[in-house]
Design goal:
single chain, 192 residues, 29% helix, 25% strand, elongated
């Protein structure tokens, strides 16, 4: 029976690496996967999922208005699919998460979503909110703060490396723009 999984964490916990490993495992066994990623994040090129450790794969991109169930059905018409893997799933809309439940429940294909849980202000992303509510399995991937505690928050940094308290929810960036921290250090930067 297929299930909807949400693998979530702060930045730099290995979400993309885990996605790429899962896809490789399926393909090594002769099974087809469909890797998808949000079009908004093109840091590594359009239609690519890449890990900081240097591995990558081609991916089908989706935007905010795409119907993911239709996209999956179109691919399924070409060849059998054994797993759908979605990177940057925090950027999914509520409707798209619902479409993924259709892929799982009706098309009977497992869907593995990988993404951030919260933004730089400690607020849930829309995709993360509905994945947390509707996923069959929730898996936290862990990384550490500079103090050694589990990092479960993300701080956005300005051009001088200072924490930002305000701004748009989405600003694409990597280590130059964000730092994963524990709640204690998040509090010191943003709440106190």
């Amino acid at each position: 029976m297929a299930q909807l999984y949400f693998y979530y964490s702060a930045m730099n916990a290995g979400k993309s690496t885990s996605l790429l490993q899962s896809s490789y495992n399926y393909r090594e066994r002769g099974m087809n996967t469909l890797v998808m990623t949000a079009s908004i994040d093109d840091r590594y090129g359009v239609g690519k999922v890449a890990s900081r450790i240097g591995i990558e794969t081609e991916a089908q991109v989706f935007s905010a208005n795409d119907d993911l169930a239709q996209m999956v059905a179109a691919e399924l018409a070409k060849a059998p699919l054994h797993c759908i893997l979605i990177d940057e799933s925090q950027f999914l809309s509520k409707a798209q998460v619902k479409q993924l439940t259709y892929v799982v429940d009706i098309l009977d294909i497992p869907v593995l979503c990988y993404g951030l849980k919260t933004d730089f202000q400690g607020e849930l992303f829309s995709g993360s909110q509905y994945l947390l509510a509707w996923a069959d399995k929730l898996v936290e991937l862990k990384t550490i703060c500079h103090c050694g505690r589990k990092a479960n928050m993300v701080v956005r940094l300005d051009g001088e490396g200072k924490p930002m308290k305000e701004g748009e929810q989405v600003a694409i960036g990597g280590n130059e723009s964000y730092e994963s921290v524990c709640r204690k250090h998040f509090r010191a930067h943003l709440w106190d």
